[in-house]
Amino acid sequence: MTGPGIELVLVSAALITLVVAAAYIRGVARVFLIAQAVYWALSYVARPLVLLTVQPRPRYADNIADPRLAAIGYDRGIAEVLQPVAFGLWVYTGAVVAYAIWARRHRSAPPRAATGDFVPTLAAVYTLGLLGRAVSYVTGSTGQAGDIQSSNPILGFVAQLATVGAIGLIIFIRPADRRTTLVLLGALLTVELMWTVAVESKTPIMSAAMAVAVRFALHGWTRLRVVYVAVISVVGIGGFGWLQSIKQPDYVRAEVLARDSAYPPSLQPYLSILRRFDLLEAATDGYYMVMRPWMTPLEVAQHGIQSLVPAQLLGTDKLRSGTAWAAEVRGSSMDMSRVSVSLADGNINEGFVVAGYAGVAVGVLFTFVLLLLTVRALLARHIVLVALGLAITASPILFERGFLGSMEVIGKSLQVVVLVWLVDMVVREYRKRTDAAEDSAPQQLGTVVGVRTKGWNNGTE
Predict the structure, then answer these.
(1) CA 281-284-287 angle, 5° bins
(2) Phi, psi at residue 92, to the nearest 5°?
């Protein structure tokens, strides 16, 4: 049995090639592709390297040291688990390279981004979402990463508007003063970082950092802007664990210190965020899956279509792919009977347990098509398409979900889009009436003054 070296080299080479190809693609697509490469590098390169270097002994609540890999040896286990990952990443990279070549040969003027007309709507959406967040936090219904569903679905739905509004404002707001711009962006990023800590999820701050990169991509990159994005990403990732430890009680901190003591001190500050990039666990789930296929392709398509329909109209419970993955796929190799959680499956891993390597190819190509559609939506001229692009940007489906999880998020995003559209109509109607009132006020004043002047003149003459 070969060691994991060749698989790690293949995975690393695919990701490096992906970054190089992304450099030849202009605009927002480049941002998403580089972000994907970083995300997958943390999941499929950084975590395996930590396991191979430290060889940690599995212990309670340590999801980095996977007992299934440790049982057969980290060298052999990682080599086996990364084989479909390497295949999937190279298929994805091949698609990106082909698109980069096509884009270079068919250069055209970059599409104009959405204008600042959306800013009032996004501000209203953000305010409404902040109210939802505040009520959720006060009532203790914020939830945590991996929860199956929110304890208050309505508040959870309204709170999603804050993330969509924050990302939209970061991308589209255009104050005339540079200092005002920095203050607004800093405030938005700070709020998203605090919400990241409150819900114990990396998604809000990662989405905010992505929005900053998208903003710069729309207006051209400079060295200073690259530094800004790098600093925001490092602070968000590095500060996540520190802020998380502040809100933990003393006994939890003691448990975390005992759990992390098996790792070198130089790695311990990064373990809290590294644990959030858990696609290697999902790849291990796929390798140990006993019954194959997990679902037939027809069942996958059926569940995907049902995910786009609201449950009230469907009349039946829809599949929650993250929960089903935890119970059925991971549950085939680990005891999940006492755990109720929703897990990230990943396009490669979901495709592998559905249709083997053919499923892997279909899964990664679906993600690439979804990425291109998201880019087009962000550059659209209508609030509905822009809101859909923002909702997808605010979710991790381009990084850690397969077809089923992506369709679930898109279905929920469509409901958010409808609410954003309603808010937009109200805001536009209010602005129209306000502008009309402002325009008519001077005319009425002039008319009255003119009449009075004319009458006074006639009287005196």
Answers:
(1) 160
(2) -65, -45
Highest mean pLDDT among 52-61, 84-93, 315-324: 84-93
pLDDT confidence bin for 50, thresholds 50/70/90: very high
Q: Does residue 142 surpass a pLDDT of 70? A: no
DSSP collapsed to 3 states, 101-164: HHHHHCCCCCCCCCCHHHHHHHHHHHHHHHHHHHHHHHHCCCCCCCCCCCCCHHHHHHHHHHHH
Distant-in-sequence contacts of 365-369, Cβ < 8 A, 24+ apart: 365/91, 365/92, 365/95, 366/403, 366/406, 367/92, 367/398, 367/406, 368/92, 368/95, 368/96, 368/99
What DSSP designation does 44 have?
I
DSSP state of 334: S
pLDDT tens figures, 175-201: 888 889 889 999 998 898 888 878 877
Q: Tens of pLDDT along 30-45?
A: 999 999 999 999 999 9
Q: Residue 152's closest CA among 166, 167, 163, 138?
A: 138
Q: Where are the alpha helices (DSSP H) in 147-247?
A: 153-172, 178-199, 203-219, 223-246
Calculate the CA dihedral of residues 81, 82, 85, 87 and round it to 10 degrees: -120
Residues in the chain: 461
89: nearest Cα among 30, 5, 10, 2: 10
pLDDT of residue 176: 82
8 Å CB contact between 336 and 327: yes
Q: Which amino acid is at 95?
A: A
At 40 the pLDDT is: 95
For residues 439 and 451, give the distance between their C-alpha atoms in angstroms, rounded to a whole number: 19
Reference 383, options 411, 412, 409, 419; nearest CA is: 419
